[in-house]
C-alpha cells in the first residue's frame, strides 16, 4: 500500500543539508512533453485528492476548489505555480509543499548529497510560527558558530522573518559557497548576530568509536540523519564494533531530524529480533504494519540518546526499541512529528511533497505534537550545550547525557553478566 505508492519520506522542513536520500529523479519528468498550465494544476489537485491524509481537506469543499482553479486562464506555467501554491496553502499543512522546477532540482540535488549552505535544520514553532532551529549539523558553519537547538531566527540579512515561510527562509540562507549570510538569533531573552560563510556540507551518515569502561569496551554510534546510505553505514559500524568485541552500545540520535522511512525500518531490524517497528495509518484508516526482519546483528545491551532535535524517523526507531524493551532512552523528550510525507515528481519537472499518513509506535502511541519521553531524563543547560559545541566533546564522558548513558549501559552489561553467571551455575 504505502510501500508501492509513492516515495515515502518522514522529515522536518530543513535548511540546505538534510532532505535525505531517494532514488527519484526529475530528469524523466523533464523529458516529457510539457503539460499545459491547467493540466499541471489539475495534476496536483488529483494527487492530493487521491493521497492526502485529511479527507476533509482542512474542512473545505475540495471539488469546488478544483473548479475554482481550473476555471482560471493561465498564460504560463509560472502563473500555474502561483495558483498551485495558493491551492496547497489552503490545506494548512506546513509539511505539504509545492516546488517549482528550479526548487525541485535543488531538492533533488540535496537528495543526491550535493549540499551547500550553513548546516541548519529548521522547523516552525507550532504555536508562535516562529522560525526555529531544530539542530545545527555537526561540523558545519552553523555548528561551529555556536547556534543551538531551539534558537529562533528572527532576521536573515536584516530582513525580519516573522510570517516568513520556511522555504522562503531557505532561499535566503542558501547561496554560493564562500559567500556570507547574517542571521539574528533570539535565545531566551538575548539576541545574538552570527555572520556565517556558506560552505559545502559534508554529511557523514554514521560515525562510531569505542570507549573502555570498567565493564569492558562499549561501542558509540552517531547517526545524524536517515539517508539512503545510512543502513549500509550502520551495518558496517555494528559489524566493526562486534569484531572489536564491545559489550554494549550507545546509539546517538540527538539532533537527528529523520529522513527516509525505509532507512529507519532497516536500521531497526539490525537491533530487533522480531516484532513490530511502526504502523502507518492512511486517511481511510487502513493500517500498514512494518515488522522486524528477524535477523538482528547484535543482541547486546543498547542505550539510545535523544533530545528535542530527534524527530520523525528518529522517533520511529527509538519508539520501536523503547516499546520492545530493547533499549533504554536517555536525554530529553523528542520533537513529536508523527506524520509521513511522500514526494511526487510532476510532468514539467516541478514536484509535490504531501502528507499521506500518521504513524504509531508498536504499542499504539501517537507521538505527533507530543514526542517520546526518555526513560532517564538528563537535560543540558545552555552553557553545557555551548561547551559541547566549542570543545567538540559531544559523545565523550565530558558530555553529561553520554556519561549517563554509559553509566546505565554499564549497569545493563553487569546485570547481564551476573545473570549469565547464575545461569551457568545451575
Largest sheet: 7 strands, antiparallel
DSSP summary: helix tally: 13
The helix fraction, in percent, is 25-40%
* Integer average pLDDT: 86
Assigned CATH class of the largest domain: Alpha Beta
**Shape verdict:** globular
Number of strands: 21
* CATH topology group of the largest domain: 2-enoyl-CoA Hydratase, Chain A, domain 1
Rounded to the nearest angstrom, the distance between the terminal CA atoms is 50 Å
| Strand-pairing-aware structural class | alpha+beta
Quaternary organization? single chain
- Uncertain segments: 1-7, 9-32
CATH superfamily of the largest domain: 2-enoyl-CoA Hydratase, Chain A, domain 1
Specify the CATH architecture of the largest domain: Alpha-Beta Complex
The radius of gyration is 22 Å
Strand content: 15-25%
Q: How are the secondary structure elements laid out?
A:
Elements: H1 2-5, E1 7-10, H2 27-30, H3 37-51, H4 62-70, H5 77-89, E2 97-99, H6 101-111, E3 116-117, E4 120-124, E5 131-136, H7 141-145, E6 152-156, E7 159-160, H8 166-173, E8 180-187, E9 190-197, E10 199-200, E11 207-213, E12 216-222, H9 230-243, E13 249-252, E14 259-260, H10 261-271, E15 276-281, E16 287-291, E17 302-306, H11 313-323, E18 328-331, E19 339-345, E20 351-360, E21 376-377, H12 382-391, H13 400-424
Parallel strand pairs: 12-13, 13-17, 17-18, 18-21
Antiparallel strand pairs: 1-14, 1-19, 2-20, 3-10, 4-5, 6-7, 6-8, 8-9, 11-12, 15-16, 15-20, 19-20
